[in-house]
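Worked problem 6 (solution included).
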Amino acid sequence: MRRNGQRGGAQRQTPYTVLIVDDDELIRRGIAAIISDEPDFSVCGFAGSENTAVKLLERHQPDLLLLDLSLGHRDGVQFLKDIAGRFAGTLIIALSDYGDKLYATRALHAGASGYLTKHASAAQLITTVRAVAAGKRPLRGPG
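Solution. The predicted structure is:
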């Protein structure tokens, strides 16, 4: 994206960088293991809190952010909105335990480019990450 200005179907010379933000280390590491198997994606960091997420966003300016909406003590959708406004060059995929379309719609309106439940399969995770990188706005639930 930023490195060569190409998005969508165009070939990239460098992998998309991905930051994973979730307060559950097992979830972070599991997502990272799945994404790291894909040659066109590179995990640039992990965060388990809002403060660490902001620091890593500033430092790495990743192409993609996978953001747990249950992070911290405040409304996750509000944090997503703050992040989307401040880091406009980063595409955000909201992660949630809730498969409810209304919650997904709130996340998309707040600035997410995609929505994925934590009950989704590894294949759905990769499909969603690829779709968002290509400029689409997918909603993925379990199954």
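Discussion: The CA atoms of residues 3 and 12 lie 9 Å apart.
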